[in-house]
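Input record (Table S2, row 327):
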Amino acid sequence: MADIRRPENMQRITTPELAEAFIEEQITALRAQIGDRKVLLALSGGVDSSVVAALLIKAVGQQLTCVHVNHGLLRKGEPEQVIEVFRNQMNANLIYIDAVDRFLDKLAGITDPETKRKIIGNEFIEVFAEEARKLDGISLLAQGTIWPDILESEAGIKAHHNAGGLPEDLNFELVEPVRILFKDEVRVVGKQLGLPDGMVYRQPFPGPGLGVRCVGAITRDRLEAVRESDAILREEFAKNGLEGKVWQYFTIVPDFRSTGIRDGKRTFDWPVVIRAVNTRDAMSATVEDVPFALLQHITDRITHEVAGVNRVLFDLTPKPTATIEWE
Ligand code: XMP
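Output record (xanthosine-5'-monophosphate complex):
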């Protein structure tokens, strides 16, 4: 299956009927490749790995083992949603690993963004490999590789090797059922497979998660401020028709404090920065013109509901000169 390419004349999957045809085709292909063997999948809860999981559950059911690693840098409610959708609703064989302390201990005191990224990436591979070694008789590894990943890696833009990085003793055969799809097609297929909209239409979320939005050395309290303020922003954007309209929106908590006042007393707390941008390819981005009254309402909620925050800022900067993420 490794070298399968998208046929030049393949019709773009835009309708439930086309998605259903793709699903049926893949189920046959997956059963042929897998036979009675077992498959392992790192299930992050992102669109690609979720669609791969749902396809494999349909094709081979309990022969699939999903591993969900909670590294402590996920958005509010994400690990719970993965468990609810895959274990409770789809009856998947799901191993949930709470690795929060492990990641946060490794990241303690680390301020350099690229070092933070490396630690998060390496630790993820280590946790996943440890789990894989515990499971007997699994020879296949499923991955949410999509067509742009293949094109970008061929063009030398991005080294795409999700499996790359796994220790050599873990010599898996790859299963890549969405390999020839573009992102929009993966979403149509996911919708047809019955995945919730919140999973299928979610905005892009970086691999290092909230870790690159908790600027500088990550501390648990500041990370909670990122997570809680992000949840409020997402809730308000959803309520006010901006979900699905704005390409990416999130909050950042820098590692400095400023003076404020609450209940007549001086405070010395963190600011929360709101970022909301639109782009086609993430190479450049413009800032969403968020209604001022909504920004005021979100400010009010964040400053009253999020511990340790006394100020809210809106990032007005397009890319370039700023990147989308702060780190
Ligand atoms: P920047 O900050 O480079 O972001 O303008 C462009 C897009 O890429 C996402 N991003 C990442 N995604 N791992 C990822 O998987 C990363 O380390 C990473 N850094 C940035 C960012 O969220 C935006 O969509």
